[in-house]
Structure formats: C-alpha cells, structure tokens
Amino acid sequence: MNAAVTSHPSVPAHPPLAAPDIRAQFAAARAAGKRAKDAAESLGLSEGAVVAAHAGEHGHPLKTQPLQGSWLELLQALEACGPMMALTRNESTVHEKTGVYTHVSATGPVGIALGEDIDLRLFFAQWHAGFAVTELASDPAKPPSRSLQFFNAQGRAVHKVFTREATDLAAFDAVVQRFALPSAGYVFGPAPVAEAARPDADIDADGLREAWAAMQDTHEFFGLTKKFGVERQQSFRLVEGQFAWRAAPQAVARLLDEAAVDGLPIMVFVGSGGCIQIHTGPVRNIQPMDTPRAQWINVLDEGFNLHLRTDMIASVWVVEKPTADGVVTSVEAFDHSGELMAMFFGARKPGKPELQGWRDLVARLPGVQELAHAA
What we know:
Largest sheet: 9 strands, antiparallel
Distance between the termini: 25 Å
Low-confidence stretches: 1-15, 371-375
Oligomer: single chain
C-alpha cells in the first residue's frame, strides 16, 4: 500500500466546542442514527477529538478512558482475551475480522500480527492516541459496545478492537487497567497537505519499467515507487499495457460475486495508514445495499465483514508484479481523492504460484478483458 499522504475531510485542530457541548451534540447525532465517524464529522470534528472529549465523569452514553503504549505490548496482551473483532477502515471501506490476536511482533515501528484470523501489518509511527471506549446501546436490553480505539495525530482511526460474545471480559478489563493513563490529554492537529505527484515527464519511465520487470517479490514495489519518486496510480499509468490495465468501477462487485460463486479463496487488504488488515479465504454472502446517501457492496460472512462504498470508486486497476514464484495479480480500487480503498489478490502461500482460477476471474472482469488479451 502506498504510504503517500492523501487528503481527507478537514477538521479543526482545536475544537471550538467545549467538551460538554461535544458530548451532547454527539449523543444527539448518534441517536439520529449516524455512525460514530459521521457523527463526529457532523460536528466539524475528527473522530479522535470526539472520543477524547468523552473521557472523565459524565452522564452521556459514550465513555472513554485514555490509554498509553507501548501499543505493541497492548496488542500482545489481547491474546488472553480470546476472540475479538478487529476493525480497520479508510474513508470508503471497512474491514472487520473476528479472531484471536496471536503472533504479534515488531521490528522498530513496524509490526505484524500473524494469527489464524487476525492478520495485520502495523505502522506504529502513525499511532498517536488510544482509548478504551464503552457506548451504551440505544436498546437498554442490549449490552454496551466495548472497544479499544487507536487514532493518528489528526484524529483519524487507524485500528479498533471490539469485544465479542466469546471475549474474556475479565482479561479485557485487565488490559484496560494495565494501559490506562487518565492524564494523557491527547490533542489532535489538522491533516497535512497532500503532496502533489511529480509530472509524468519527470519520471524515468524506462527505468521504472525495467525495475518493475526485475522484481522478485511483491514487497519490492514500495521501494520501487520511492526510488523513482512515483505515486501509486501514476506508476500504473507509466507501465500501462505491460504490467497494469484499467478495469471498470463495477469490477469490484463482480470480483466478489464471482469469487463467491466459484468458491475461490481470495485475499482482501484494507488500510488506514496506520494498519493494513487482511482476510484470506473464501467469501460467500455478497450483498449490495443502496441508501439515499451511499451505495455499498458488502461481504457478510461469519468472522469476516467487508463494507465498500461502490459510489466512491473512481478507478480500478489490474496490476501484475513479477516474483520468484511467477506473476502475482492484484485488483486495486481507488477513490476520488486517490486513496487506495482496497486491494484483492488470489489466496496464495509464499513459494506457491498464483491460482489459475484467480487469473481467469480477473480476465473476465468488466473493462479489463480486452486489454488483458491484447497485452
């Protein structure tokens, strides 16, 4: 996933509202049915700023407790809690995966979780603040929602962890108590200005294509973009017809539908800037949903949910990367700000070639078939 800065809705660095006003207005927005992120933005605030405003004693449904790092040690401590739901999202896409946080480690600021279900790439330099969050349900008969929520310096959520029915709540409480820091006083600032991509004419396109052809591992791609100073989609344009092809926006929904019909195991990557969350396996229950304000394609499987706003898809690319195991093909969707919404691959283990069924599925996607055959 390209680490280039992308633009997001601007929020004030210092909230003009006092904490009691934030709590009252947020509670009203939630009662009206808004999701937490949307409710915060309706106040002109980041989600992190609203969560921070709910720390301390008060009578509103949302209550928060500031936490301190090390974030790595906190995530490692979650293994004792048993099954939990990991949530990573960006502006357009939400990835939810239920499992146990196991095999969590880090080298410097870069971490990894390699559990059977919880599969994460963690970029702790982006983790600015953490909170334990409890929110009462609108139905008094239902238990409150309990979670750990982590935000970057601009108040954008990088990762969230929710308790489930099978979670050991005593172990969860112990984690919260161990990492609680009521005096944290987290403050959030404005989003950085997006860096403009260099003009195509300033890029060594021939060198890029040669380096691309020489790749032995998909993880070399990030270094390649840095070396040539090229933005992700810009790199696709510069190798278009050789290593990258455009697809139609409806290719994402078609991909999920056909993978479900074929029983084909796939990989679904969604990133927040501070975390990349991965599902590997089949997808089964694919459900589109249109509302007056948004159009979604959803995966509603036991243990894995994906919610992607199809109305925000601006471009879709099919990308081939050479590796020591043969070509690896991804399908990548971008929104109108250029942010990578999600990436899709065929399920594959290191040392194994890509599934032919995945390649066949990609070749059938709308808008890419003719281009792929012409390559």
